[in-house]
Prior knowledge:
By secondary structure, the chain is mainly α. It contains 15 helices and two strands.
Amino acid sequence: MISFNKKTLFSLGIGLLFSAAALYFTFQNIPLKELASYLRRINYWWIIPSLLIALLSYAIRIWRWQVILLPVKRSGFMSAFHPLVIGFMLNCILPGRVGEIARPAIYHKREHVEFSKVLGTVAIERIFDALCLLVFFIYILATITIDSSINVTFAGYNLSPALLSKLFTFTLEISLALIAIIMLISFSKTRKLINRVILRIPDALFFVHDHARETIRERIFRKITHFVDNLSVGFDILKSPGLLFLCLVQSFILWWLLGLSLWVLAFGCPGIHITFLQAFAVEIIVCFAIMLPSVPGFWGLWEAGGVFGLMIFGIPAKEAAGMILTYHFFHLVPVILIGLASAMVIGVSVTKTTRDGKEALRPEEALKEENEPAVSLGMNEP
């Protein structure tokens, strides 16, 4: 039976209003009559195959998360489906990308698996995505010439090749830092060393009584080491070359599908003639653009990235804005609706789930995890 949670609906309503306001401000300086005229000329039947391809990419994403979750718990498709689609829905309607925390929180509650272990799998998933984006962007730069003088200002955002280069460098640096941290935590010897250092931190409080230092060590820092140990379980996919290779293949396929989705939509947009590689380049540029701070649903930045990408290939701003707005809207709304339906089916409270996820990141919550049912960490758990 479907459960309509009032807090969930209220949160969704606020998020949708926020996104609607962002959409209005995004296009308030665009010649709306010309844009509306162009939107009426689009053959919207092409949205159907474009959307089906995009939904297939989500199915691949769910399958990939199932694989990443194997060291934590063998999960059915629907067990991974609900937390993932609700998490993506929350990223579309609420600020701060809270869906990244809500997803492991939902899985933790439904599957009785410690939150920190699931959080590690989400971190690994983001590493796979970042690596794919970096590889594809390097390939695009090697095959497509981008005029360094092109600058696009859209809805208050200014994009240029120089900014894309900075975003690429930033993504690379963050990815390398995360990989280094993950590797240090994944190996038992380095993890034990890190935990010993963490447990020695209270000793620096030489002005505090011995009993107080021990209390601080046990109540805070001991729980941090417990969190680190659990987090490392979520990284165990890295220890299986076969599963690691499978996840990389899945990652490349799902991003290839997203590029294909945009390219298919272009067939229904008058005045837009681009190759698959060009459409794929636009998709990657959009992904880099939405890394910048933005409103829920990435309104404004998504359009700025898409318009900039299409203008590189000689597409006029009006046609570019019309196509990207159509692509964004018809690919965002289904995610929100599917996530909403999923939240209703499993009776999730958006407000409570988000709060629980944030609380689970605090050291004192590790004590609660210690008392939860243990799960097998074997790769072949039935």
